[in-house]
Design goal:
Helix content is 46%, strand content 14%. The protein is globular, with a radius of gyration of 17 Å. It has ten helices and eight strands. The chain has helices at 29-34, 40-45, 61-68, 92-102, 104-113, 119-125, 137-149, 153-165, 172-179, 182-192; strands spanning 2-5, 10-12, 50-54, 57-59, 71-75, 79-81, 117-118, 130-132. With 201 residues, it is an alpha/beta fold.
Length: 201
């Protein structure tokens, strides 16, 4: 069993946009797949049940994490957002999982507008399984973990593998290509300098 949560007012807001910004280095597909900084693949591949307790901001990579977790509950204070396109980045994890979770129309709306949604809307969309009062988040997460522990560990691992085998593959190549693009450089520069991007034509 793996229980993940955040600290203070953030669950996870994604990677460091400034890292390697001055001297970007292309990643190979093998490196991307193995990066411990991007544990999305591991959360699905491991035979443990992964419970995410979202305590606050769940944006970008945080959204990818909960899409790869098995059970996700959220504090009433949590918010969810897919801001990657504002940075000129095509997130191959997001594209492979969000439509499966909430449906094509809602996923496209969330991705293409980069709109923030609250926990109640996330629950209504099926993005998460339950919203709880903020102070009860961790006690509820531990209660769920105890319920899961009552089930057969080998049988639940087998079912997790079967369920996840039906999901489409992640497209790491589009992420790799987009992070090295002129759009990404402009999007990240705009983010760092707190301005609207001027997309190259």
């Amino acid at each position: 069993m793996l229980l993940i949560t955040g600290t203070e007012d953030s669950f996870c807001v994604g990677g460091d946009m400034t890292k390697n910004y001055e001297n970007p280095r292309p990643f190979t597909i093998e490196e991307l797949d193995a990066l411990n900084a991007m544990p999305f693949n591991y959360l699905e591949r491991c035979n443990k049940i992964v419970i995410a307790a979202v305590n606050g901001y769940c944006h970008a990579g945080g959204l990818d994490m909960i899409l790869c977790a098995d059970i996700t509950i959220a504090s009433e204070q949590a918010t969810f957002r897919a801001p990657e396109l504002l940075r000129g980045i095509a997130d191959g994890w997001l594209g492979a999982r969000l439509p499966q979770r909430i449906g094509l129309a809602k996923a496209k709306h969330m991705i293409f507008t980069a709109a923030t949604i609250n926990a109640q809307k996330a629950e209504a969309l099926g993005l998460i399984s339950e919203v709880v009062p903020h102070q009860q988040l961790m006690s509820k997460a531990y209660d769920i973990a105890e319920q899961v522990k009552l089930t057969g560990p080998q049988a639940r691992s087998m079912l997790k593998k079967q369920i996840n085998a039906q999901l489409p593959n992640f497209d790491l190549e589009i992420f790799q290509r987009s992070t090295q693009s002129a759009e990404a450089r402009e999007g990240i520069d705009a983010f760092i300098n707190k301005r609207n991007p001027i997309w190259p034509r």
